[in-house]
Amino acid sequence: MSLAMAAPAAAVLFALSAGSPAPGPGPKPSERIGVFLRCTGEEEPRKALAAVKSLGLDRIQVSRLPDRYYTPEGAREFAGLLKAAEVRSESVVVVFDGESYKDQESVVKTVGFRPVDLRQARLDYARRCVDFAAAIGTKIVTLHMGVLPRDPEDAIYRGMLGAVGALAAHAAGKQVIISLETGQETGDELARFLDKVTEARVGVNFDTANLVLYGLDQPARALERLRDRVTSVHVKDGLPPENPARLGREVRLGDGRAQVAECLRILEQSGFQGPLIIENYVWRDRGTDPLEELARARDFIRASLRR
Fold first, then answer.
1. How many of the other CB atoms lie within 10 Å of CB of 89?
2. Which of 47, 198, 244, 256 could form a cystine bridge with 237, CB 3.0-4.6 A?
3. Whole-model pTM above 0.90?
4. pLDDT band at 14, cuts 50/70/90?
């Protein structure tokens, strides 16, 4: 089924978030800054939500939660936590068991829909995440689909395309948009893949750093190729790999090569009105306070956009 048939409301959401200006003034960029929930350093959702509010922010991306939340009862519980904290969920992430990002080979072997023997179980789990998102009133679900083979005729490529299409169709029926996170392919490769998805329109969760961390593309160049599909953003910075077999290193905003300020300006100039989610784990390596690092990132975004 097509997106137009399955979920016209989802199509409107996609248009408004992905570069088409909404009727009338939307929220200012500073009002759209949020936090990837686990980046607070708090595992317990209630404490993590309180940490976000302590930063003067009220928007989040929901990181992976204990499995009990991905049920009707668990979704109602989490929705209650959001309401009590006065925090808005902008997006939900899908993280699969067994995924490893320790080096390039591990990413190829373990991430997303690429592992053939895990694909159906992962698709089933991703559908549960979509159902959870719909139940808590969230319209965007993001994931890494895995490393694409170079050849579109490769059986693994076709299998990944089928899985993304099936998930997108399920999501469209719930008025939810699937957004693939950038990083494991160039902007051109991702755009060509998305053009092949016919079941429902699929968006992009643009991660400013991943293209650098994987050593694949210049973020601003990739954004120009993808900006009409961007529904949400991970604001993150990084350095390219020193060893091509490994990944690069995340750094504080402005200290890397992810062209963060330039990408933010491109998005705003294009009329993007979606969430700007801080994904920041630099505190793990630096031994610093997670909330201090998030506050630094928040201030960098505000200064970059000057409003």
1. 23
2. 256
3. yes
4. low
